[in-house]
What does this fold into?
Amino acid sequence: MNKVTFKIDLCKGCGLCVNACPKKIVLLDDKQINAKGYHPACVLEMEKCIGCAMCATMCPDLVIIVEKGDK
Amino acid sequence: MSEKVLMKGNEAIAEATIRAGCKLFFGYPITPQNEIPEYMAKNMPKIGGLCLQAESEVAAINMVLGAAAAGARVITSSSSPGISLKGEGISYIVGSDLPCVIVNVQRGGPGLGGIQPAQSDYNQATKALGHGDMHIIVLAPSSVQEMATLTGEAFDLADIYRMPVMLLADGALGQMMEPVDLEAKEKRTLPPKDWACTGHGGKRPYNVVNSLYIQPDVLEKTIIERFKKYDEIKQKEVKYEEYLTDDAEIILVSYGITARIAKTAVKHARTMGIKAGLFRPVTLFPFPSEQLDRLADKTSVKTFLSVEMNMGQMINDIKVAINCKKDVYHFGRTGGVIPTPDEILENIKKYAAVGGKI
Amino acid sequence: MVVFKKPHALTETPFHYCPGCTHGIIHRLVAEALEALGLEGSTIGVAPVGCSVFAYNYFNCDMIQAPHGRAPAVATGVKRADPTKTVFTYQGDGDLAAIGTAETIHVGARAENITIIFVNNAIYGMTGGQMAPTTLIGQVTTTTPYGRKNDVQGSPIRVCEMLSTLDGVAYAERVSVDSVKNVLSAKKAIKKAFEIQSKGLGLTIVEVLSTCPTNWGLSPVKSLDWVREAMMPYYPLGVYKDVTKEGEQK
It folds into this structure.
């Protein structure tokens, strides 16, 4: 199972990952505020993640770690 | 005592640089110091060294910053207008605590000024070379021998105190030839350069050479540390020469080439029964304040006469040094005009007569 | 199996850059290149004055902070002091193409074996949005409030094209970080620049079109669009000099 994890408190809520995700599963979590006062990025439907790391590629702040599940 | 070689002052600096193990010169052509880059260009390649002519004095001083940050001995030379261009870079080098040697073969100013010798960069060198609370060590050679000897000492002082050291010479010293013994230099122990940017090789945390401290209290701490270093330098590194000051009533204070002319005038004055003496600072920073103050305490001493090739700059440091205990006057020519012994003698007579009123 | 994480050549210090500013991406690409080539321990980086002045907090290699515009000269001093080391400068458009123009041209003229990472975001970020030498005609900044005009402020400088005329320039490419595809090719370009430096073939420079959401007054995502729609027509991406390509005329 592919997985992305977000270092919540590094996120500045810029949304570049949201924009980059081909599966449109990355969103800014408007239910929480991180230490910087931003809505951090998150993924709810992790099962749809294809591990392409496009979100992480566009992230300017090294917030996202991407793991690919071994099939 | 090894044999002496007849050399120009500028070339003596260049040869002494090579003998001090410095392999990197960054410079830019400007009269009257051109023999330095020319000598370097001819001789650095012979020892695997580099003489690089930069696109400007601004670029040159920043190449010096880079090479010094990499832990190398490095030197640059220029003349008055070029030194003004290097001011910002020198302030960065001070703020980054980097060692280097900077030569100023002074010429008349301000502006393009002239190309004849002058000492009108004294205030710049000792007080206002760059922005911020900062000093650099300033050495004032007075002969071709000292152009060589003080160059070697400048490299050691720079490494010991991790700061720029300036050789404040002038066009006369640069262009004149005198015999020089290139061996004369005592060896000093030097601290390791473990702060240098040489690549951490995975064996140490990475080093940073930097002068930016965005928090004011942190910046203040770095400045205060540096000023403690200046106090240590004032205690340990002052150099000067005294001539006939034991019974002198009027003491000429003069450095560089002008001190030699002043010495001739002092001799003339003595033959006319005027008790004149000469005090020659070799270090302009650290300024020999205590030594001058001690002289001022002597009852025999009535007057000080600052003889400089400018409109009067060191005179202020003399007054401060002796708290105006005795009269301090100035005589000087500027713009590249070199004073004659007779002119200085006239002023000795003039001020010896009026001196000592207070 | 982890397929994406922070490269070791970046420290743990979080970036101070504004939200969506692509400086962060470019820092990562430089670090990834240094790591891929095993150069981290033998590299010295030179930070400019500008938004990336704090780069010495972010790169895990020896770093020097240079006066505004003088990073190429500082890098020259470092490289000449030890030619076995890898040396790079990381500079913005004001640093490189305004006050540092002479330094930029002359490291090219001298074929200095250093790598310049040139971040072109067409504005002065750190000081609050003034005109840069790369500010586009008509672009509004705090010092071109009516839009930049040719007859008043002249026209923007195309650095890669200019430098490609110098024999000493071994590699000059303009890339962008406005999309995943372009980020990946920017990464290749930066890695190639370091490789060419290691071969000692002369100056290598990668000009990276980058964003400044705060001072452009655009959202981070809209800023990426602006790079494509406004900057790229004037600053075409591509290789402007590459001595490693046979039959490379110029």
Notes: The radius of gyration of chain C is 17 Å. Chain C has a mean pLDDT of 97. The beta strands of chain C are 2-4, 43-47, 62-65, 86-92, 115-120, 169-176, 203-209, 238-242.
